[in-house]
From TrEMBL:
UniProt keyword terms in alphabetical order: Membrane, Transmembrane, Transmembrane helix
Keyword Cell membrane in annotation: no
UniProt organism field: Paradesertivirga mongoliensis
Entries under InterPro entries matching the protein: ATPase_put
Protein name: AtpZ/AtpI family protein
Length: 97
């Protein structure tokens, strides 16, 4: 029983030391992961911005027309969603190819 625990401790300590990065050198796997997070976070902000701009434009149009029902806000926000989805799908296709 003692022999098995010693073997496990040796294995786990060896594996932990293998995964430790040298000082001053970035870990390639983490760098790629950060790049992925940055890409997809930027896509989220882009989507938020496009939908927000179109919704705000529709709101201002309805405000200026003094409309009882906010049709311009509804249509432009929906157009913003479709445009944002188009941009996201196009970006993902570029990344994959």
């Amino acid at each position: 029983m003692n022999d098995k625990s010693t073997t496990f401790e040796n294995y786990s300590s060896k594996r932990m030391s293998d995964n430790e990065p040298e000082k001053g050198k970035p870990i390639p796997a983490r760098k790629g992961l950060l790049n992925s997070y940055a890409k997809y976070s930027a896509m989220g902000f882009q989507m938020f911005l496009v939908i927000g701009v179109f919704t705000y434009a529709g709101y201002k149009i309805d405000e200026r027309r003094q409309a009882k029902t906010p049709l311009a806000t509804a249509f432009l926000s929906l157009a913003g969603v479709f445009i944002a989805l188009y941009l996201i799908i196009r970006s993902i296709r570029r990344i994959k190819s």
